[in-house]
Structures are given as C-alpha cells and as structure tokens.
Amino acid sequence: MTTVQAVHYTRYGDLGEVRIGSLPAPSASPGRVLVDVRAVSVNPVDVKTVAGELAPYGESEFPALVGADFAGVVKQADPGASFSVGDEVFGSLPPFVGSFAETISADPATLAAKPTVLSWAEAASIPTAGVTALTALATIDVKAGDVVIVNGVSGGVGAFAAALLIQRGAVVIGTLSPSKITGAAGFTEVGHGPGVSDRVREALQGLPAAALVDTHGGTEVGGLVTLLADRTNAVSVAHGLVGDAAGGTNHTTAPSSAALAELAALAAAGAIRVPLSETRPIREVKAAYEDLLAGRVRGKLVLDARAW
Ligand SMILES: NC(=O)c1ccc[n+]([C@@H]2O[C@H](COP(=O)([O-])OP(=O)(O)OC[C@H]3O[C@@H](n4cnc5c(N)ncnc54)[C@H](OP(=O)(O)O)[C@@H]3O)[C@@H](O)[C@H]2O)c1
User: How far does the centroid of ligand 1 lie from the alpha carbon of residue 48, in Å?
Assistant: First the structure.
C-alpha cells in the first residue's frame, strides 16, 4: 500500500489529538485531480474542525486530515478534469476533509491556476482568508474615498479585506492588538479591546464611517456600528452582528474558483499584496496553530508541505 505523510486526527478534541504520520495515499476518482502539495496555510477554522465544532456543516471521517488551504502541482488528473498533470494550482478542501498531506484528492471546481509570479506560500495564503474577504466585501457598499472600519485588520481575513479596500480606493481604519501597531501599515491602526469605539471615533475626526468589516465579533462590535452613517452597511465573518448591531450581514463564505482566480490576478498584477507573514516547516504544525490562536501571527502563516 502506498502511503503519504499527513497531519491528522482520529477523534475530535484539542490540538493534542493532532498527529503527523503515514496514511494511505488517495487514489484518483472520476472528475478529480491528485495534487502534490507544496504549501498549506493555517486558519482558525481548522482548529474548530478538529474540535468537532463544524459538525453542522459536515462530519470528519477518521482518520481525518487537518487543514483546508493548499497550493501544489497536479500529479494525476481524471480525463474529465479541467486541470492537467503538471499544472500549478491552489485552493481549499472542506476543513472536515482536510488538506495537510503530501498528496491530496481535490475537486477542480474549488481550484484555480497559480500564477507563476506567486510563490507556493503566497498562493496557499489566499484561499480561505482571501475568498472570505472578497465575498464579504460584496455584501456591503463601498466607493472610492469611503472610510471603512476593519475590525481585526491584523488577521488573515482582515488583512485581505484591507488590501482589497485600499485597492478600490477606500480609506481604512483597522483595529488590531496595540502591540502590533507599526505606524507603517498604509492605513490608520487603532488598538482593539475596551474603548475601541472611542478610539475609532477619534480617528474618524467626527465624521461617520461608510462601512464596517468585522472579523472578530464580541462586545465591541455594537459600538463600532454606531459610527456608521448607515448601520446596515456592515458585514461580520465572525457572526458578530447581533442585538443592537443586527441589520448588516453575518457572512459565511463558500469555495469559489472564480474568487480564487480574481484574487490571484490582483496579486499577480501587484494590485494587492498577499499578507504572508512567514513560512515554517509543516512538522511545526502544532506550534503554528498555538501561535495563531494566541494572536502571535500577523496576516497569514504558511507551512512548507515538503518539510516533514
Ligand atoms: N464566516 C466565514 O465564512 C469565515 C471564513 C473565514 C474565517 N472565519 C472566522 O473569522 C475569524 C477571523 O478569521 P482569520 O482567519 O482572520 O483569523 P486570524 O488570522 O486569527 O485573525 C483574528 C483577528 O481577530 C483580531 N482580534 C483579536 N481580538 C480582538 C478584539 N478584541 N477585537 C477586535 N479584533 C480582535 C486579531 O487581532 P490581533 O491578532 O492583532 O489581536 C486578528 O486581527 C475567525 O473566527 C474565523 O474562524 C469565518
């Protein structure tokens, strides 16, 4: 039996359930492609999946692979598939299916071609965070010159949202941990936490903001919504628009090869910068998730999927 190295778990639980080891290699199936994985990126949803919190959307089949986002090379393609052997691709698998293995089986409908100017790490950074940001922005109205608040601008989704908003000519006020403020982000940085609405109001200099993109939820979102000219022009990917803040959109993303291709084209043209923070060996996967959950990552953390 051919095997591949894989990051996997055999029952729901915390990161202590995550193992690196050999699993049977996937086999080709109709309409699908086998991908030799070069890089993967970590997302908070991966950990929620290991914990069994995604059960309403799908159940993991044990042993289950960890992760979702990847970039790699097609090594085997069904004749009916839209990609060929040797094509460089990137995309995501449903998190309860998982992508952190040397070889994975993927549905071409959730892939896009990797532009040659993007590195494996840049491409692997895009799928979940980039597509979520792009599709969330489609639910709000933003014009060039508008001021938009991005709550959680230092995270994967927030960093992509800020890059896309700036590319569209909007002015961004982003909240993040005070320790991460650099003054060189290309937008106004405001420390999150208690009193954040007052600090953002000060940054707005008395004018209302046009829109809000929330990636964190929590108790402060209600205060941020009061800073908008139109309280319904708000979107949360953390389903944080509740109570007095309800009226905007609590957004859930879905895989989209069209969205992947749009983001890849923008990144390849230099119109947006992929917010890649660093790449580590995949054998450090648990430490990577611990750092992500502890807020020690800015932007996207990628794992080299050939460094087992
Ligand atoms: N609905 C969907 O379809 C969908 C899709 C993708 C992700 N998500 C969810 O969206 C959330 C963000 O995802 P991500 O990949 O961007 O995660 P991430 O990279 O871990 O970023 C989390 C962000 O939240 C910020 N944050 C922490 N405490 C905060 C506070 N009190 N107020 C405001 N911001 C705070 C962090 O800032 P600091 O690090 O600077 O503290 C960071 O910017 C996660 O819960 C994820 O599961 C949902």
Answer: 13
Question: pLDDT tens-digit profile of 27-46?
Answer: 988 889 999 999 999 999 99
Range of the domain at 278: 3-128+274-304
Q: Is 261 inside any structural domain?
A: no
pLDDT, tens digit (0-9, with 9 covering 90-100), for 208-230: 999 999 999 999 999 999 999 99
Q: Are 142 and 210 in contact (CB under 8 A)?
A: yes
CATH number of the domain within which 52 lies: 3.90.180.10
Q: Is beta strand 147-151 parallel, antiparallel or unpaired with respect to 211-214?
A: parallel
220 and 285 in a common domain: no
Whether residues 145 and 120 fall in one domain = no
Residues with CB under 6 A from ligand 1: 43-45, 128-129, 132, 151-152, 154-158, 175-177, 180, 192-193, 215-216, 218, 220, 237-238, 251-253, 292, 295
136 closest CA partner among 45, 236, 209: 236
Nearest atom, ligand 1, residue 295 CA: 39
Q: What does the radius of gyration of the chain's CA atoms come to, in whole angstroms?
A: 19
